[in-house]
Amino acid sequence: MNNDNFVKSTETLKETVPLMIKHKVPTTPANYALWYTYVTQQSPRLNQAIDGEIAEQGQCSPTACDKLYQQHIASKTVKDMAQLKQSLTAMMQELSHSMTDTLSETESFQHNLNKGFNQLELAEKEGLSLEETMGLVRNLVKESRNIQLSAGAFRTQLNSAQQEIAALRAALHESQKEANEDALTGILNRRAFDRDMESFQLKKQPYSLIMLDIDRFKRFNDDFGHQMGDQVIKAVARRLKESCREQMQAYRFGGEEFALVLPNRSLASARQHAETLRRNIEKIAVMDRKKGERVNSITASFGLAEQQPQEPVIDVIRRADEFLNQAKKLGRNRVLPVN
């Protein structure tokens, strides 16, 4: 990098950091890359997307930054995945070749073993000398050692491959944890919820929280199977996502429990939204393909909480969850608090 480029990069960085501070964007390497690109205006589509996010949501949330980074910056990820695929293919080919070689050597050993036994039987009949007989035995021992070495080498390779696969599985698990979207429903997951709530707390932005839980969900799994349970979860998630407007965001909180965040909304507004959503969930019908019947007895219970000034996120969640539990105890399929 020449001096002019260095000075230009430094000036760009001086613009990038205050902009991130202004929008309270977490200072991660990915966010640095995202906002550095924004300042340099290298990608008009990225600038348009960020400007639109700020205009619509009043902020660029951590999950929004991650999404924009994946869409506009992280092309390297595609290359890394291609490299991973190539490495896995090479490893499997190597194992396949080793297995083929080992099987071939095993067949050769079997052939030589049969040949040796035949010669020993012939020796017994024809009365070969002790030296000739010992020569046959030595050949059998040698062949046995060769196949042991071949099998040992293959076993070592399998162990090494097993370790590589375990490492890849761990890396995949970590990457899945890093993802913001729930794999089953496609809406945001608990990790995204925690990060966004932390962002609300940092920016001191008021909000109301809706927690909801599918009623008698275990029954769907017990009576119709887990696939039906998954279909119910996905159907409810779609209704939540469809209901989101004006900066609202839906999350799968865990299992059959969901969360809906309503920025700058009062408890009364959140209750109205939750009541509409409750009625819409009542209308859901899911087809049981095994029996050819439609399951239309889906309901959910709701608990609400409006964040009080300076109130920690954990207290808001706890309060909403307490109302949710009360709603279930009072008969389910209802929204609490009433007022």
Automatic annotation (TrEMBL):
Tell me its EC number(s), please.
2.7.7.65
Requisite cofactors = Mg(2+)
One Gene Ontology BP term is: negative regulation of bacterial-type flagellum-dependent cell motility
Q: Which Pfam family, any one of them, does this sequence belong to?
A: GGDEF
Coiled-coil ranges (or none): 151-178
Sorted alphabetically, which InterPro entries does this protein's record hold?
Answer: Diguanylate_Cyclase (IPR050469), GGDEF_dom (IPR000160), Nucleotide_cyclase (IPR029787), Rev_trsase/Diguanyl_cyclase (IPR043128)
Q: Which residues form the GGDEF domain?
A: 205-339
Example of a GO MF term:
diguanylate cyclase activity
EC category name: transferase
Q: What is this protein called?
A: diguanylate cyclase
Give the species this sequence originates from: Photobacterium jeanii
